[in-house]
Amino acid sequence: MKTAVIVFPGSNCDRDAAVAIERVTGAAPAMVWHEETSLPDGLDFIMLPGGFSYGDYLRCGAIAARSPVLPDVIRAAEAGVPVLGVCNGFQVLIETGLLPGALMRNAGLRFVCEKAPLTIETANTRFTRAYGDTSAITIPVAHHDGNYFADDETLNALEAEGRIAFRYAANPNGSARDIAGITNAGGNVLGMMPHPERAVDALHGGTDGLAVFESVLGGAQ
Amino acid sequence: MTEITPRYAEGIDEQVALEHVTADEYETILTVLGRAPNIVELGIFSVMWSEHCSYKSSRVHLAKFPTTGPRVVYGPGENAGVVDIGDGQVCIFKMESHNHPSFIEPYQGAATGVGGILRDVFTMGARPVALMNALRFGAPDHPKTRQLVAGVVAGIGGYGNCVGVPTVGGETNFDAGYNNNILVNAMAVGLAERDKVFTAAAKESGYPVLYVGAKTGRDGIHGATMASAEFGEGAEEKRPTVQVGDPFTEKKLIEACLELMSEDAISAIQDMGAAGLTSSSVEMASSGGKGIELDLDHVPQREEAMSAYEMMLSESQERMLVIVKPGREDVAERIFKKWDLDVAVIGKTTETGRLVLKHKGATVCDLPLDPIGDKAPKYERPYFPAEARASIDPASLKTPAHLGETLLTLMRSPDMASKAWIFSQYDRHVMADTVASSEDPSDAAIVRVHGANKALAITADVTPRYCTADPYEGGKQAIAEAWRNLTATGAEPMAVTDCLNFGNPERPEIMGQFVGCVEGMAEACRALDFPVVSGNVSLYNETDGQAIPPTPAVGAVGLIEDASVRAGFGCMSEGDVLLLIGETRGELGASLYLRFIENSEDGAPPHVDLGVERRNGDFVRAQIRSGLARTSHDLSDGGLACAVAEMALASNCGAKLAYEDGAPLHAWLFGEDQARYLIAADAETADAIRKAAQEAGVPASVIGLAGGEAITVNGAHALDLLTLRQAHERWLPDLMGEDMQAAAE
Amino acid sequence: MKARIHIYLKPGVLDPQGHAVASSLNHLGFEEVSAARQGKLIELDLNTADPGEAQTRVKAMCDKLLANPVIENYDIELSA
Amino acid sequence: MKARIHIYLKPGVLDPQGHAVASSLNHLGFEEVSAARQGKLIELDLNTADPGEAQTRVKAMCDKLLANPVIENYDIELSA
Ligand SMILES: Nc1ncnc2c1ncn2[C@@H]1O[C@H](COP(=O)(O)OP(=O)(O)O)[C@@H](O)[C@H]1O
Ligand SMILES: [Mg+2]
Q: Which of B112, B247, B326, B709 has its CA 20 to 30 A from that of B316?
């Protein structure tokens, strides 16, 4: 398993992401600095971590989406390499156009940090298959701009194509149709606001997020 | 008066001088220098001899704190306190105030407060792992309060969330005494390798001095001095501006500093706090007995035409001063450039013992450093103690008809109501080591040591009501409650940091409060082997002669050797026996009960018997560490009834209290007697704990059973959990509404 | 020369900030406010002499970075 | 009528957003950008006929809520 975590200035969940990945694969991921212009060869998984890349200035994820390393990430994604964007990573994926829609300021305007109950909308994605018939989980959210927006056409398509992976059971941010996480048409890119890497450890936030990594990284070795 | 002519350097007159220092201080300067100081030198004295930097009113009393102990590596005097947590690691922490700036500009004031305290911790080599905040606002219905709450909370979250350090706990009070002087105290906790701790003292001369971080602008240059000669004709762009923080730069600064610290390049390092360049350069040089020479032309500047005075007094954020080993400048340059931060060699250390500043080729400052420290004013301000209050006889107050209603009133009161509206705006989980934070039923926040199985317990406490009623007992109680909150989780209390917030020390009654609180805290620290390793003093918190209630905020850190062996108060279950540890005399003086039920602030606060405090606490900790006690809660505000209510809400399980005799019923329920804990356990375990208590000579009595969907007393006075939860959780959201947010940022 | 760029949300895109501004203003007694929209204001200093060139370049900046075409429109004002 | 309000930071106040925008534009090849400042744009729909009244009312809105007098300046444009 060759994995990588992209590190932007202002990323602050990069270490958490690495710990979660290593817990499942037993091997530390490559930490790739935003100024690299090419990724390590033969990656099986790329993660865009949470945080405040470039201070979240202008628009969350906007500047990161245009940083030197991104073209190669986009190439990999288009070639089918699994890519997971969490929180700020989701915002970056949206800004690159790999995922549709936009993430706006939370409806309540306040930053929201809470343990969010989620429903798993489909277990047949590369990121949710390990959940089996589990349908309800709890994963922490912590964001200011997680209010998912897209036009009805896009939303209907996402629903029709089974690309909504997670919904909020108690919508914390005003997201359209309670959307918490979506995949691309190819099913190899997942963006989600909740932090699965903060739920891989019983002492910290429970283990409901572990299956996301087990799904995409081929289960505990 | 010293015979020195001219008495004033060019462009300075008496008024300008007095805007910087007192008349006496100016005389001292003349004698020390043997000449009149120029405006830059005057500015430097005004900073170094300010209350903030020189602690001139408090120094003599702060010396009363015990500051050493087996775990203490560095006590007060460094940027932050350092305690040994074993395995070659240390915990580094400090608490600081940002009261006035937060009142002027709530968002930026609170945000820069967080930034400043973080720098105090990582400048010593620690990666920050937790933030706490202790907030005091005015009366809920005061016209300014809601906007201040919205702005301060958004600011703390905005900064802490972005730098990626979890804000794991704190405390919040509302009291009319803070209407025009809110308190924003922030605490940062970090972890470092014991042999990788960095200090500020310049040990060598001839070493390069590097400026790193953000550029210098005209931020926060002291208002009074701006009206002075030099800026009389100050154009708009020359006016001082409020410090604005940039957490993104801070995050990069943390990573860059830690990266540089992992190389063998740093000789000494110091964050730029208030009047950054002045205090940092002076402190680094004088604490090392060296001199320092800076060329201000090399200081990275954000604005045009900055004067030497402005550069030396600027409070621009996210800046550090680093003395590197000769020849290692390139290492620093590489790292800070990588992080897109400014880095510049601006001078060198010297043997002269003087601070020499060059600007545009001219020497604009040449001061001997020793006098700045030695001759710094140190006042023994007159004070008289507050006169003692009579204690309240609980029997003189009539027992309310429905005690469930009484409990409801307290649990929805500003002090007891849920603060979820606040802490849900703080990222409490980033770094993935938070074991317990604000939302969890734990008397202290618990943060695991990354990669290890042990954890830090962290708490922030003080009860201003008590300090007002009796500064000495209140000071003791603040330390005792912090120690108790740590103990109730099973942690070994290690050390204390503080933030002493008071009014104008030139008023003897205020100084009396200060001295009383400090002496009370000091006695408690000695009795509990709980040394003070860092702290901060904030005086002059008053408006129109109205001083804040004395508020010596205490931050404390404890150690949990095995993170899986600890106690919280959220697992009380049907049939559990409720065991009260400690004695109940029913002390209602200065209690929440008195405030919200009798509308009185009267009476003597609960007495703190430190011997009993220690005995009971050591016993409870032993029960938790042996694995017997898994559910325990300390008793504080609102006494037994409120502790039971908090346990019931957290466990979603009611309780049937059984009152037999002793203090009058209302005092038994709401008395705030100290040194008490509530333990919930199955009958068998409870029995074992009770026996152990008997042997240890610790009072322990069964006061009821867990169960049902309500809290009852002798089968009556029922308060159902749903009603309780609604009232407890809705108070703050209802106060804040939704209309404030648009203005918060 | 200088460029002043107004970036606002496309009609139909939900605008939580604008909504909050309007209701707060109403709440404060400014009932005449029937709606509010919040956008961004970006001012650029340009080392460019030719207005025509500036116009095309700034438009490119907006399309490449400053505005998000999915949700935002923009207009550009140039001044010497 | 409509009010368009520009809110920008006072001169000298640190503007990290503007700084980030400028350096990102430079990175993207727009070297002609020497500086950038970011502010807020607020548009209000008003049920007010009289421009004079609108002007005073909107100014009050800015002072009370929309702008932060400590660090921000603002200007107001009214249009029918
Ligand atoms: N300003 C704040 N920031 C974060 N957490 C807070 C704040 N104020 C209160 N809390 C949290 O609310 C809970 C109750 O606070 P408090 O009643 O002071 O606890 P205790 O009585 O045990 O000291 C605690 O978990 C505390 O951490
Ligand atoms: Mg407390």
A: B326
- The residues near A35 (Cβ < 8 Å, ≥ 6 apart) are A67, A68, A69
Q: Which residues of B fall within a CB distance of 8 Å from C24?
A: 739-743
Furthest-apart CA pair in chain A: how many Å?
A: 43
Count Cβ atoms below 10 Å from residue B143 Cβ, excluding itself. Answer: 9
Tell me what pLDDT residue B110 has.
97
Cross-chain Cβ contact A108/B741 below 8 Å: yes
Catalytic residue among A13, A34, A60, A87: A87
Question: What average pLDDT does range B55-70 have in this prediction?
Answer: 96
What is the C-alpha separation between B128 and B247, in angstroms, rounded?
A: 14
Cβ-Cβ contacts under 8 Å for A152 (sequence gap 6 or more)? none
Rg of the Cα trace of chain A?
16
pLDDT for A173-209, tens place per residue?
A: 999 999 999 999 999 999 999 999 999 999 998 999 9
- A179 backbone dihedrals φ, ψ, rounded to 5°: -70, 130
pLDDT digits (tens, 9 = 90+) for B75-132: 999 999 999 999 999 999 999 999 999 998 999 999 999 999 999 999 999 999 999 9
**Residue closest to B572 by CA, chosen among B663, B686, B676:** B686
- Contact between residue A120 and residue A190 where contact means Cβ atoms under 8 Å apart: no
Beta bridge partners of B291: B350
**Chain centroid to CA B617:** 24
C-alpha C4/C-alpha C7 separation (Å) is 10
Residues B659, B394: Cα–Cα separation, whole Å: 16
Residue A143 among the catalytic residues? no
- The catalytic residue among B20, B52, B666, B728 is B52
B242:D16 CB<8 A? no
Q: Which residues line ligand 1 (CB under 6 A)?
A: B 133, 135, 169-172, 419, 422-423, 438, 443, 461, 485, 636-637
Residue where the block lists tokens 């309240």: B392
Nearest beta carbon to residue A16 from set B246, B249, B431? B431
Rounded to 5, what percent of chain C is helix, strand, coil?
A: 35, 40, 30
Question: Does B98 participate in catalysis according to the annotation?
Answer: yes
State whether C40 and D39 contact (CB < 8 Å): yes
With b for 16 or more beta-carbon neighbours within 10 A and e for fewer, the B66-87 pattern comes to bbebebbbbbbebbbbbbbbee
The answer to whether the Cβ–Cβ distance between B241 and D20 falls below 8 Å is no
Q: How far apart are the C-alpha atoms of B367 and B552, rounded to whole Å?
A: 36
Whether residue A78 lies in the annotated active site: no
SS3 B205: coil
Paired tokens of A35: 């100024």
H runs (alpha helix) in chain D: 16-27, 51-61
Instruction: Say what the ipTM of the complex is.
Output: 0.94
Q: At what angle do helices B145-163 and B721-736 cross, to 10 degrees?
A: 90
**Neighboring chains of D (3 or more beta-carbon pairs < 8 A):** A, B, C
Residue B173 CA to ligand 1 centre (angstroms): 10
Cβ D17–A57 below 8 Å, yes or no?
yes
Selecting among B20, B61, B98, B728, the annotated active-site residue is B98
A102 touches chain C (CB under 8 A): yes
CB A51 within 8 A of CB A11: yes
The span from the CA of C22 to the CA of C24, in Å, is 5
- The rounded distance, in Å, linking the Cα atoms of B259 and B268 is 15
Which residues of A fall within a CB distance of 8 Å from B247? 52, 55
- Tokens describing residue B294: 């800076």
Instruction: Please state, in angstroms and as integers, the Cα–Cα distance from residue B15 to each residue in B8, B20, B235, B310, B313, following that order.
Output: 11, 9, 21, 19, 19
What pLDDT does residue B225 have?
Answer: 42
- Rounded Cα gap, residues C1 and C54, in angstroms: 8
Token pair listed for A33: 């600095």
Residue of A nearest to C68 (CA): A95
Task: Give per-residue pLDDT as tens, B268-278.
Answer: 999 998 778 99
